[in-house]
Amino acid sequence: MFKKDSLITGILVGIAVPIVAYALIMILFEQLDQMDGSAIISIRPRTHALLAIAGNLIPVQIAQRKRWNASLKGVIFSTIILCGFWLYKYSFLLYT
Predict the structure, then answer these.
(1) What's the rounded Cα separation, in Å, for the pair 61 and 87?
(2) What burial letters (b/e) apply to 6-28, b meaning 16+ CB within 10 Å?
(3) What is the distance between the alpha carbons of residues 32 and 45, in angstroms, rounded to a whole number?
(4) Where are the domains of the chain?
(5) Which end of the chain offers a freer environment for a tag, N or C, measured as fewer CB atoms within 10 Å?
(6) What pTM does this model have?
(7) Count of CB atoms within 10 A of residue 56's CB?
(8) Nearest to 59 by CA among 23, 22, 5, 96
(9) For residue 56, how far is the Cα from the chain centroid?
(10) Residue 43: what are its φ and ψ, rounded to 5°?
(11) What is the pLDDT of residues 31-69, one digit of tens each?
């Protein structure tokens, strides 16, 4: 059976939420760009990725309120891993 408070559940949620958030952010900005071609909203891909990673704040809050400590650890662990990938991928662009 599916156990809500487990480390694996937290890791899976911590990976799935940024993927879905990234897709939604991309769709949102594409729709905004198509609505009004004169007002181009330009945000770099690294900002999209960072906003998607920040989407993990929602499951962190939910896990904290419900006192799902094991799931909370999984979400935080996956967030730290994703931040490490973000730094690895975009560290050379940070100062340009």
Answers:
(1) 24
(2) eeebbbebbbebbeebbeebeee
(3) 16
(4) 7-93
(5) N
(6) 0.84
(7) 23
(8) 5
(9) 5
(10) -125, 135
(11) 877 776 655 666 788 889 999 999 999 999 999 999 999
